[in-house]
Amino acid sequence: MAIDDVRTQPRDAESTQKAIAILKQQFGEKVQTGEAFREQHAHSTTYLPAQLPDGVFFAENAEDVKQAVKVCAEYKVPVIPFGTGSSLEGQVNAPEGGISIDVSRMDQVLEVNAEDLDCRVEPGVTREQLNDYLRDTGLFFPIDPGANASIGGMASTRASGTNAVRYGTMKDVVLSVTAVTADGEEITTAGRARKSSAGYDLTRLFVGAEGTLGIITSVTLRLAGIPEKIAGGVCSFETLEEACNAVIMTIQMGIPVARIELLDAMQVKACNAYSNLSFAETPLLLVEFHGTEDSVAMQSEMFGEIARECGGKDFTWTANAEERNRLWKARHSAYWAGRALAPELGSLSTDVCVPISRLAECVNETQKDIEKESFLAPIVGHAGDGNFHVLLLFNDKSPEEIARVEDFTTRLAERALAMGGTCTGEHGVGQGKKRLVAVEMGGSIGVMRAIKKALDPDNIFNPGKVFD
Amino acid sequence: MAIDDVRTQPRDAESTQKAIAILKQQFGEKVQTGEAFREQHAHSTTYLPAQLPDGVFFAENAEDVKQAVKVCAEYKVPVIPFGTGSSLEGQVNAPEGGISIDVSRMDQVLEVNAEDLDCRVEPGVTREQLNDYLRDTGLFFPIDPGANASIGGMASTRASGTNAVRYGTMKDVVLSVTAVTADGEEITTAGRARKSSAGYDLTRLFVGAEGTLGIITSVTLRLAGIPEKIAGGVCSFETLEEACNAVIMTIQMGIPVARIELLDAMQVKACNAYSNLSFAETPLLLVEFHGTEDSVAMQSEMFGEIARECGGKDFTWTANAEERNRLWKARHSAYWAGRALAPELGSLSTDVCVPISRLAECVNETQKDIEKESFLAPIVGHAGDGNFHVLLLFNDKSPEEIARVEDFTTRLAERALAMGGTCTGEHGVGQGKKRLVAVEMGGSIGVMRAIKKALDPDNIFNPGKVFD
């Protein structure tokens, strides 16, 4: 998407320039105001128009963040945290200008306590980097969105991904964060104990706050032991409903599946083309089981039975790592595979999550809606959580098309809400879902606003995100 | 303990009486001001002196709670939520007087969505009542503190218990709450989806807030499937260190133990006497495994090997339900068994939680401290979480003894904090741990205070709890 710089409410330009000048004097090259830097930091994987910050500050440690926040707080200049820019709802945009705090240089793994299955990392560490680092410990970091996102960003959007059905989301694995609050001081939200009742759960408050309450400077994470055995498999279905029903039964039976991913026919077609695969172009489930040799075999057999019962074709499973990795690489490329269906078009990746019993119904109605609108829009989902994505490919230069897409996402969100679900399972709110979250949360939005105002009275932290 | 009525800061008596009069007029018998009612509602399982409310309001539905809060908000009268009164740190005391809102009549299971493994209950439903209700569904509510606490109270103190090592704490199983906030309106913090990124995690903010931010009027809970097979066993050890080492290895090996409880020699002695058992009066581990027949057998065998390696004697396990229930009944009576060691004495049950690798060290040092002080103080713990309790039996009429006990709990908390742990794993803060939590949380207490002030500017909700 082209770079547009559409600010909704620019703040006082003079104050912003003063703050930048002070930071430049103190930090020199760590502060950049060139167009290229500013563009890069507003450019996220989103359909929303880019809104450029006035400057970019490359923080190298928590002390840098504290200083930058202190200066920005004094001049009431917006502070927008930036990890890798892989968020999908405009979380890194700067609608009121300000300074993007890029934490990608804060990329140290600070400690690994293998004997306690935890570690502490700086926010710029990416999930792949962390798993490389952990390779020899027998442990891994299980949260696995498609992108190689930063841990700070993943915490801030309450990310999850393919493994969440077994290992939880960032809400579950973040034990504690340190964060710089509006007074420029750093707080620690908890210790390393597995559980605590010591006051308000500030850890969970910062997880999912999308940088609106402070800047995360380190994250303590619970890790998982690498399973003795991993088995995976694929199963094609005639219809989406059959595939969803197999997911529902798997969850209801309590099979501790580690991953259970749904691809609709269009997404399978996209992945076949993009990753050189040859699956039948009908709905597909990709599954993975973690455990002992016996247990993964048993889980695979049980799933196979369920799949057959639901109309699945030729379920096969394998413990062969190479074959498995090829499959999951294709799954992780689903977004780019989808985009490649129509590289000339813009895209919007939306996500909803419903109680598992409503998954088939929600996906089915959504696909009918897609057909009715003649959208090119593959569906892919972390079906075990009741969570699925629609990647809408459309002409984002056409106001009519944009309006049609927005109406579609509104209908999708309303459908999920009517089923007891949420308008976003893992992408977060950013700018794109503010109006939907306002509907979903009702009076709770007032409570969120009150908290925001109490902790950030001058609204310097990532203004214009989550709610208005 | 005798009833003392020691208010720290009584509020305006006239306003309180006005509010009570208005509520009496509107609600008649639902409002009680007799001494017996007031005493009962200040009397919790705590060492702290009782501080009586001025009246008790028996709410029967959310509408009642809204009305009561509206009246109390208008007259700035404290509102103290009351479930079953089983909290341990003075959470139900009324240091500034006010009205105790008893939710025990709000005891309806509102819905069970068996196909989604969730349910919604009123706050006065107790955990045993819920499990009775669920009996025929194949599901159970896994959070299991000793007392038959109310779900509202368990949510408010972020309770856990013996199953937490496998099934998590209230933080993990509460999907959503409805709560009446300071404006007398009811908010809903989330839907029923298994995960959501829709704004701030208000669910987790209310879980553990101890009623200081609002009154919980319903709780949506994630349930677990009743395991196909349950096996349990006991193993005696010569020393606490050996027993702790067996726990540490079990967790580090990733054995998905459902319960792993530690009793020191004194606690075993107490349980033998109270529950008519005949265990060797040395440190003991009680374990339980959930899964398929094969898997519980394998887990039991693996644990047996670890126990032997660590010096355990004669580990035996059984899938016999009657024998198992007898054991766990004894475990759940541990508190009363401890009290029965010296019924003439007062008691203080304290709890800390440390990273699992430090468990042996922390328990060992604590026992040395107990010996040095010649305290009668059994230790019992949810060892798999690194969480343990000390039940101090002491003359609570002696200021010197009280001071010695307070010094001990301070040393215990400091020991846990120095190891990266917390001063309370599951009892919460109430009045008793405010000073310790202030040390533990440092600057984060300021953030908690700001949130409290934003959501409850007149400090009507459970004043004097969690922090000053």
TrEMBL record, chains A, B:
A family per Pfam: FAD-oxidase_C
One Gene Ontology term from the biological process aspect of the record: lactate catabolic process
Broad EC category: oxidoreductase
The organism's place on the tree of life at top rank: Bacteria
UniProt GO MF annotations: D-lactate dehydrogenase (cytochrome) activity; D-lactate dehydrogenase (NAD+) activity; FAD binding
Enzyme Commission number, as recorded: 1.1.2.4
Cofactor requirement: FAD
Gene3D superfamilies noted in UniProt: 3.30.465.10, 3.30.70.2740, Vanillyl-alcohol Oxidase, Chain A, domain 4
Keywords (A to Z) from UniProt: FAD, Flavoprotein, Oxidoreductase, Transit peptide
Domain FAD-binding PCMH-type positions: 49-226
Family (UniProt): Belongs to the FAD-binding oxidoreductase/transferase type 4 family.
Protein name: D-lactate dehydrogenase (cytochrome)
Source organism per UniProt: Martelella mediterranea
